[in-house]
């Protein structure tokens, strides 16, 4: 319940200077080669602090947005006026960091953040270092990182000396073989290992509600099943998209840890034809649908966890005409709420018939769920459709929602960002954007969504291997 209240508070922002859902699309039409527009759209923080409050860059646009026109501007008038306003402030320096707004847009830094400044290529700090080739990719440094990051241990002095004695080709081959060896270890794939850590914010475990192994005092669902499916999809050349689309479940065996697909588990209840990977697991339905008629929280969590888009931060807004319809009479048509709910509510409709907590019907697909359990919520609640929208594209049901999402650039970007943060230590910076884009595009277009193959690319990047 607390999660839903926080989300609602974030979405129903008050104020007259509302963030405009078309803004990100218009920005990318104006600057199609900007790093923020490569496979995605910029977040509203480009122009806002906490929407609707504008940051210094957003405030600089205001005098140039259809001056003299009555406020608030319609979405259409705003879209027409924004390109000219953006161009009018290109030469200015909104955040006072000595880089023009246009340069920051083109280089992928933030024109409202003085700490986000374009860095000239080749300006890495130089100096004497007898161990590593500072500022350039150094295979010896990458070798040490691979053993630490994937095996959880430093190489011995003898291993370092042996690696340094290899030819360049030999070093590359050993890096690849060590990565493959280390990803078979418990440190990488075992319970609470590196893969499980990546899954934490997607699954959001609550020990008091856990069933099965390590059960809590209120055993409602076993989220270890979710970790098992997530880990299986990341390993051994498997298709990472199946974390969203799998019709199967995954059983975890220990000593050593192994993951194997199975058609059924006693802890999972959604029939095969209605499954969508971890989106429809017992834990996801119990935890994110709970007692809700229209499962906005389940949709928002799926959008954030697997597609990297947080609606509470006004990311990934693709308004659907005529929305929100407000079938559950929550007041989301209010001007301060509608901008986000025009995206969120159509995202939520495909979750319509997936039940949360309801006795024997818990964590199941129930075709007449709203009619059976929620008919008194609002006069129009039973008119809620199962068909919805994702990225502005119509989807018939949750299985199609999951497939469209899994095939999207957003999924590839989000998946590679997870590993970039884990292994490089931070989200991709503006200076790393070219390497990052090349990595996620190869993950999607060349490697068939195999994380194992993508990792071999990632450890070759300068972002990973330059001291």
Give your account of this protein's structure.
The chain is mainly alpha-helical. Among the domains are: about 90 residues, no CATH class; about 110 residues, no CATH class. Helix content is about 45%, strand content about 5%. It is built from 21 helices and 4 strands. The N terminus is likely disordered.
Task: Please describe the topology of this protein.
Blueprint: H1 2-11, H2 23-30, H3 56-61, H4 75-88, H5 101-107, H6 139-151, H7 157-164, H8 168-182, H9 186-189, H10 194-203, H11 224-234, H12 242-245, E1 249-253, E2 258-262, H13 282-289, H14 296-307, H15 335-348, H16 369-373, E3 388-390, E4 393-395, H17 398-406, H18 409-424, H19 433-445, H20 451-458, H21 462-465
Whole-number mean pLDDT? 91
Estimated share of beta-strand residues? under 5%
Q: Report how far apart the termini are.
A: 46 Å
Q: Which sheet architecture does the biggest sheet show?
A: 2 strands, antiparallel
DSSP helical segment count: 21
- Roughly how many Å is the radius of gyration? 24 Å
Unreliable stretches covering 5 or more consecutive residues: 1-17
Question: How many extended strands?
Answer: 4
Overall outline: flat
Structural class: mainly alpha
Strand order of the largest sheet: 1-2
Which bin fits the share of residues in helices? 40-55%
H/E series, N to C? HHHHHHHHHHHHEEHHHHEEHHHHH
């Amino acid at each position: 319940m607390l999660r839903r209240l926080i989300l609602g508070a974030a979405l129903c922002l008050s104020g007259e200077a509302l963030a405009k859902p078309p803004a990100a699309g218009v920005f990318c039409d104006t600057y199609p080669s900007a790093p923020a527009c490569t496979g995605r759209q910029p977040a509203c923080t480009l122009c806002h602090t906490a929407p609707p409050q504008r940051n210094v860059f957003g405030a600089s646009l205001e005098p140039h947005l259809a001056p003299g026109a009555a406020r608030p501007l319609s979405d259409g008038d705003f879209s027409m006026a924004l390109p000219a306003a953006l161009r009018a402030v290109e030469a200015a320096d909104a955040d006072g960091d000595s880089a023009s707004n246009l340069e920051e847009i083109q280089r992928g830094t933030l024109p409202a953040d003085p700490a986000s400044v374009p860095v000239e290529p080749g300006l890495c700090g130089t100096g004497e270092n007898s161990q590593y080739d500072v500022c350039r990719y150094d295979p010896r440094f990458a070798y040490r990182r691979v053993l630490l990051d994937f095996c959880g241990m430093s190489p011995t002095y003898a291993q370092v000396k042996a690696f340094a004695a290899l030819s360049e080709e030999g070093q590359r081959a050993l890096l690849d073989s060590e990565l493959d060896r280390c990803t078979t270890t418990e440190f990488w794939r075992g319970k609470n290992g590196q893969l499980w850590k990546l899954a934490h914010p997607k699954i959001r475990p609550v020990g008091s509600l856990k069933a099965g192994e390590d059960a809590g005092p209120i055993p409602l669902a076993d989220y270890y099943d979710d970790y098992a499916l997530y880990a299986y999809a990341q390993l051994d050349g498997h298709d990472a998209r199946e974390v969203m689309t799998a019709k199967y479940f995954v059983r975890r065996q220990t000593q050593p840890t192994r993951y194997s697909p199975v058609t059924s588990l006693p802890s999972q209840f959604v029939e095969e034809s209605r499954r969508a990977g971890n989106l429809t697991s017992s834990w996801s339905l119990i935890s994110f649908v709970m007692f809700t008629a229209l499962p906005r929280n389940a949709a928002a969590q799926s959008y954030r966890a697997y597609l990297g888009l947080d609606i509470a931060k006004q990311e990934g807004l693709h308004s659907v005409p005529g929305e929100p319809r407000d079938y559950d009479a929550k007041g989301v048509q209010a001007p301060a709420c509608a901008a986000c709910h025009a995206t969120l509510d159509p995202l939520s409709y495909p979750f319509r018939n997936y039940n949360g907590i309801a006795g024997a019907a818990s964590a199941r697909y129930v075709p007449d769920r709203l009619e059976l359990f929620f008919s008194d919520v609002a006069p129009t609640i039973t008119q809620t459709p199962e068909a919805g929208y994702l990225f502005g594209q119509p989807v018939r049901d949750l299985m199609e929602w999951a497939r469209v999402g899994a095939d999207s650039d957003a999924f590839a970007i989000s998946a590679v960002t997870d590993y970039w943060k884990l292994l490089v230590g931070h989200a991709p910076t503006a200076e790393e954007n070219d390497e990052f884009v090349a990595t996620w595009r190869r993950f999607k277009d060349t490697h068939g969504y195999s994380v194992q193959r993508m990792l071999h690319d990632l450890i070759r990047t300068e972002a990973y291997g330059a001291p």
